[in-house]
Amino acid sequence: MPHTPHTLVLGIIMAVGGLAGGVRGVMDGRGIWADLGALGAGILGVLIVVSYFVHLEDH
User: 38, 22 in Cβ contact below 8 A?
Assistant: First the structure.
């Protein structure tokens, strides 16, 4: 995966949107699959952001 500032922005948007959407879905009582999908996207976003900074520190 390329480590550019665009990747960082994508990761932040995925993390915030996914985690907020997942929490809201749990609070609203939507289906479990929709909640897990949103939370999964949020976790993937967090991993992208962490990966960006780890790669940045290595170089």
Answer: yes
Under 8 Å between Cβ of 40 and 15: no
Distance (Å, whole) CA 20 – CA 25: 8
Handedness of CA 29, 40, 57, 13 (dihedral sign): negative
8 burial level (CB within 10 Å; 0-12, 13-18, 19+): middle
Mean pLDDT for back-to-back runs of 10 residues, the chain (59 residues): 86 95 88 89 95 87
